[in-house]
Design a protein that fits this description.
Elements lengths: L2 H18 L7 H5 L3 E2 L10 E3 L10 E4 L2 E4 L8 E3 L6 E9 L4 E8 L8 E6 L1 H4 L30 E8 L2 E6 L2 E7 L3 H8 L16 E4 L6 E10 L2
Antiparallel strand pairs: 1-13, 2-5, 3-4, 4-13, 5-12, 6-9, 6-13, 7-8, 7-12, 9-10, 10-11
């Protein structure tokens, strides 16, 4: 069996397993490993708030059947975690439609607004204008390091994960590691220097910060948002 076929079968089985089980829950093994939910499928305010606000104020964030939806064309605003994180794994599932665009940002310092390292979530076929703007990249700074075993799923659930451990950061998409980089490294800082983020002091270096879900106007759905701290 070739490698691409293996990845396809593995991620398909993983997806079917997720669809068969309850969403927004943790297994005993996940609880034992330290995972915690950041969304229970009912209340968004417990762990999230609009940036610059004490609660969720954007009407464009709605919950239906346990799924968090950023509705298209409605004022939603960026939302961030109530607390900050230093070393962690953050995992989530997401769905976008044709031409869709969204993202998850991390190491966000609220004092400088919705600025952070962004894990891009986008319709690659429509927006494939630059390798720095595809799904799973460090947006505008570093591209993916592999050719995807399968394309980004449009109108279907994708699984993503970010791991920040010390100076090392890893991006995963549908079970495949697609990017690894070192915070503050020459490679990262060179990428930052060529990007629109160069005016933000210290961008590209390690900080303790929030995780943020963006409002890019397009519809985007989220579920199974969970995190665990790394010691």
């Amino acid at each position: 069996m070739n490698l691409m076929r293996y990845f396809f079968l593995a991620t398909t089985i993983f997806t079917l397993g997720l669809q068969a089980g309850e969403i927004n829950t943790l297994s005993k093994a996940e609880k034992a490993a330290g995972w915690q939910l950041l969304f229970d499928g009912k209340n968004l305010n417990t762990h999230w708030r609009n940036i610059g606000q004490k609660e969720i104020t954007g009407k464009g964030w709605v919950i239906r059947d346990g799924v968090l939806i950023k509705e298209e064309g409605k004022a939603a605003g960026n939302i961030l975690t109530r607390r900050t994180w230093t070393d962690y794994e953050f995992a989530w599932e997401w769905k976008i439609g044709t031409k869709g665009n969204n993202g998850v940002k991390y190491m966000v310092l609220e004092k400088r607004g919705a600025i952070g390292h962004e894990y891009q979530m986008i319709d690659d076929k429509f927006w494939a204008k630059s390798p720095l703007s595809l799904t799973g990249v460090f947006y505008a700074v570093l591209p993916r390091e592999v050719k995807l075993a399968e394309p980004v799923r449009i109108d279907q659930w994708n699984q993503s994960r970010i791991k920040v451990s010390g100076q090392k950061v890893e991006h995963f998409l549908n079970g495949e590691k697609i990017l690894t980089y070192t915070l503050g490294s020459e490679r990262v800082m060179a990428g930052v220097a060529k990007s629109k983020f160069k005016r933000f002091e210290g961008f590209g270096k390690k900080v303790t910060g929030h995780i943020l879900l963006t409002d890019h106007k397009d519809r985007c759905e989220f579920r199974n948002l969970k995190i665990r701290e790394l010691k």
